[in-house]
What we know:
Structural class: alpha/beta
Number of strands: 18
Largest sheet: 12 strands, mixed
Order of helices and strands: HHEEHEEEEEEEHEEEEEEEEE
Strand content: 5-15%
Shape: elongated
Oligomer: single chain
Amino acid sequence: MGPYFIRNLIFLSTLVLITPNLVTKAEDSTNKDDNLLICQKCKCDRINKTLDCSNAKLTKLFDDADWKALNESSFDFENVTFAHNGISNLTQFPELPIKHLDLSNNYIKEIARRAFINLDFLETLDLSYNQIKSDVLIPEVFEGHFDATTYEPLKHLKVLKLGNNLLHYFKSNLFEHFNVLEELYLDENPFIAIDQQTEIALSDLPQIRILDMSAMQLTKLPEHLFHATRTLEVLNLSDNGLHHIPEALQYAINLKELTLDNNPINNLEYINVFPNLPKLEKLSLSYINDIEIIGEGAFSGLHNLKEFYAVRNMYLKEIHPKAFSRPGLEDKTRIEYPPLE
């Protein structure tokens, strides 16, 4: 019996002793979760740091005592979903380590002031598919802790989803507690028009990159809507009632992706129909039955366009060969085209 055999024997013996301990720890965690009310009603996934309370037939959020018990169990949950329940009143959350919170597909009509003030790590908040009205969505709902440089911010909130609610305007100071918001989804709310208060609110988003304003029943946009949102890169205006390319786009100078599908747009026969959008790479003009002709130079201001989509435009008869062309920047006699792929 050589030393190599003895070393292997010691290793195997150690492994046999350790393995039961690992199993015991896993069983202990499972047993702990079985004793927690929240884990009895929801799925507590410690490995993926997820608390899944979707489709749990809940009509309200849990009490502070239940959250405290979950916290004391050393469950470090970052992802929490209450989607597809019957919650109507959103009360204030206690101090929790949540980063991503999904409250979509409920019946939320009321939201407490400072509802999210204790969620210091919150990055994503989904309130879509509820019954939230404009008079409920007030700045105090999103109030955060005191900060010496910014007005009581939700310091880490980057994504806010408000689609499919009953919103038709914003208070002008609604987003005063959002200093790092990058994505805002407003799709399928009955705004009909962007009034002055709403325009001011949307201009108060210094870091916004993605804005979804689809299916909001809009027929026009205020001319200076994007004047203060110079960081905007992706804009969805599909499924509205826009008859013309909005003049407001002239201020969206850093826009990279624009979707205008399913609007009754009909004025694409003239040169420079689109404003100069030097960074635009992707444009979609699909499902538009009012377009018959795309004329010469219509897209001449889109110098960097790489992708263009015009699908299911039933009455589109002609796209002029020079629809995308423009005179050369240095040599005006030279015709230049964008780098379409």
